[in-house]
Design goal:
Among the domains are: about 10-170, no CATH class; about 175-325. The chain has 18 helices and eleven strands. The chain has helices at about 10, 35-40, 50-55, 120-135, 175-185, 190-200, 210-230, 280-300, 305-335, 340-350, 360-365, 365-370, 370-375, 385-395, 400-405, 415-425, 430-440, 450-455; strands at about 15-20, 30-35, 65, 70, 75, 85-90, 100-105, 145-155, 160-170, 230-235, 255. Strands 2-8-9-7-6 form a five-stranded antiparallel β-sheet. Helix 8 runs antiparallel to helix 9. The longest helix has about 30 residues, at about 305-335. Bound molecules: adenosine monophosphate and magnesium ion. Adenosine monophosphate binds near residues 82, 250 and 470. Adenosine monophosphate binds near residues 112, 240 and 250.
């Protein structure tokens, strides 16, 4: 049994990675294995514990740590890179789509700086759970193949905890920070090679640097619009955590918002709220500006003209995002086609649901079609929503009842459930984790019969804090 690797990144982009083997986990044990995903990708896995911990590599793997730079909370680091991850290689899925196979938590690399190169079990299970939830919600994301415990205990703030490796697949691991790495070093030819490689791999239709930028901007804008639609707060939208493919990547202190409040922040390290829910569209634009800066040498030979063209392209980003967001919200509200007043209809809905559970305020719109009083029970003060509902009814598509249920999840990964499931899993009991995983993998299924996964915590929305867990 094998994986047929074809490692184009290593072949085409010398100088952008360091080849090195992952650590050999002393006692690897598979905790979670995504058999459905493996089958979808045509992967025949004969040694999950060995392959996905790094203890024994599949034939043809050519492990490497990729170099990248990045702005972290606005401050630039010229060298970050895979400090605890190894790209094992690329393979082609049954449909010809190219995938990266990467291990995370697999040991120190020359990019580790002060870190131990390891990952704790809790955060790796968290990435597995949330990334699979996102995939089931139809949101572009890296996918999780397995979580394997290493048999080691590693030291974290809370004391020694079990170490683990996450195996994930991604359309690629090319980040805005990958471009910044070469740009900061003034290595223009390597930067050009990276741009050409990324265009060929992800945006073959793009014809030049500005066309490439527009494609990336479109993909990332659609992604962030979809995050906003499900109340997802990424938590660390640093430029090294923004994938050129337009996939969600690097699940750290992310979480789903419950009561709608634009200022929602979960991450313990985001003290200024830079990556708050409502700021994500602005940060999207900020990060895209950092990408476009690196592309300036390819925009035009005349630096002043390049700057003018780039500025014009950047000015378009807010509009690109708004179009993507309106498309997401039209779907969520079950609107028929497009109408001139949709922007204010949507904005007024958002104002009316402030403080109400984001997920239920959308999901139960389907019920509001026949039982308005039942819907209004979600609201402490129903005045604004009562005034809004007739405007909404006038814009509904004819099949709104089904369309609303198909567009709005009943189940998201609610914070109190994630926390309880991870705590039990760290103590050796995977029952709650597996039950929650199954629930979030069927987000659009019925509410009935699974109220425990649908409803907010009975204790109320205690302030939830997430940690990077690195
Ligand atoms: P992140 O915030 O997870 O996106 O990581 C930012 C940078 O820190 C990346 O270069 C990571 O590879 C690195 N890093 C995070 N955790 C560790 C760790 N435990 N050991 C070494 N490097 C790490
Ligand atoms: Mg990262």
């Amino acid at each position: 049994m094998m994986i047929k690797f074809d490692n184009s990144y290593l072949r085409d982009l010398p100088g952008s990675y360091l080849r090195l083997a992952p650590d050999r986990a002393p006692d690897p044990k598979v905790l979670v294995l995504n058999k459905e995903l493996a089958a979808e990708l045509g992967l025949a896995i004969s040694d999950a514990a060995g392959w996905f911990s790094g203890a024994r590599l599949p034939e043809g793997a050519d492990p490497a740590a990729l170099a990248y730079a990045g702005h972290q909370f606005g401050g630039f680091s010229a060298q970050l890179g895979d400090g605890r991850a190894h790209l094992l290689g690329e393979f082609l899925g049954p449909d010809g789509q190219r995938w990266d196979l990467q291990l995370k938590g697999s040991g120190r690399t020359p990019f580790s700086r002060g870190g131990d190169g390891k990952a704790a079990l809790g955060p790796m299970l968290r990435e597995y759970l949330i990334s699979e939830a996102m995939a089931a919600l139809g949101i572009p994301t890296t996918r999780s193949l397995a979580v394997v415990t290493t048999g080691e205990r590693i030291l974290r703030d809370q004391g020694p905890v079990p170490g683990a490796v996450l195996a994930r697949v991604a359309a690629s691991h090319i980040r805005v920070g990958s471009f910044q790495f070469f740009s900061a070093r003034g290595e223009v030819e390597k930067l050009r090679a990276l741009m050409r490689y990324t265009m060929a791999r992800h945006y073959p239709q793009a014809e030049d640097a500005l066309g490439f930028f527009a494609s990336v901007a479109q993909a990332q804008a659609r992604l962030v619009a979809q995050w906003m639609g499900v109340g997802f707060v990424h938590g660390v939208m640093n430029t090294d955590n923004m994938a050129l493919s337009g996939e969600t990547i690097d699940y750290g202190p992310c979480a789903f918002m419950e009561a709608y409040a634009p200022g929602t922040v979960f991450s313990s390290i985001d003290r200024q709220g830079r990556y708050a829910y409502g700021n994500q569209p602005l940060i999207l634009g900020w990060n895209l500006a950092r990408l476009l800066e690196t592309l300036l040498p390819f925009v035009d030979a005349d630096p002043e003209r390049a700057l003018d063209l780039a500025n014009a392209a950047l000015e378009g980003v807010a509009g690109t995002y708004r179009v993507a967001f309106l498309a997401v919200m039209r779907q969520k509200l079950g609107l028929a086609g497009e109408a001139a007043g949709d922007g204010s209809l949507i904005d007024d809905f958002l104002t009316a649901i402030e403080g109400v559970d984001w997920t239920l305020a959308h999901r139960r719109l389907a019920g509001a079609l026949t039982d308005e009083a039942g819907y209004l029970a979600l609201f402490d003060d129903p005045a604004a929503i009562t005034a809004w509902l007739p405007r909404w009814r006038a814009r509904l598509r004819s099949d709104a009842a089904e369309a609303l249920l198909a567009a709005n999840p009943a189940v998201i990964a609610r914070n109190h459930l994630v926390e309880a499931a991870l705590q039990a899993a760290e103590a050796g009991d995977l029952h709650d984790f597996n039950a929650l995983l199954a629930a979030v993998q069927d987000p659009f299924g019925p509410e009935a019969g699974r109220e425990g996964f649908v409803l907010p915590s009975p204790k109320g929305a205690a302030d939830y804090v997430t940690y990077c867990g690195t």
